[in-house]
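Re-running WAT1-related protein to confirm reproducibility after the cluster update. Everything else is unchanged from the original entry.
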Amino acid sequence: MGNGKVYSTIVLIRLIYAGMHIFTKAAFEEGTSTTVFVFYRHAVAAIFLAPFAFFLEIRQGSAPPLTFRLSVKIFAHAFYGMAGTINLYSIGLNYASATSSSAIFNIVPVVAFILAVMFKMETLKLKSVHGMAKASGILLCIGGVVALALYQGPQLKSLNHHPLLHSTGTAVHARLEKNWALGIFLMTASVVIWALWTVQQGPLLLEYPSKLLNTTLQCTFASVQSFVIALVMERDFSRWKLAGGMSLFAVLFTALLWRRSPTTCRSG
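Result of re-run:
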């Protein structure tokens, strides 16, 4: 693949990620429950991937045997890296903005690289030109993310329909500021966990190299886990229906298009 195609692919991936944040935020503004949204997202992804995993790997016999120990490990990866962290991220996004969400998401590769260095899976030689370039890029990326994430800016009125969000009262403003800070914290925490999950996919794929089945199993386990989380957090079953057309579109977009993007298909 030439450099032009590589750069075009990267731009396409970033556009997909931006769409994920914007459409998900719009779904929450429409009134869809965050935990229910995450459950539907994982369930649709699992249903979509299951036939491919069956016909391309299981039926052809290319998938290695799945032991109980390995199943438990995949289940654990699905919990902290998919069900848990995406629920955290969604709650944070509900409190903050799509701009902040998109900005914070960009530090996933940076945090993943730092964790890989800590786990001695990558090296960083600060005395070399290559190492200095890496370090400079990391600092610039973090600086840009902090600037974009912490600048709250004006509300997007097209996505805001709740009258309280248009109030200029002091009490409401203070509450929004508190919610904003909580949203940034939750999204940052989830991104760190997400980066850890990304780093751990390498060793997991060495142990179980069936990429498609691995992805499908994690999505399936995450669906079950997200269902339990939603059941605990959302007792009102009237809230289990999607609030509108944008919510349905967001579920399909995040479950299908984003799930199939090159960087996420490495394991999920």
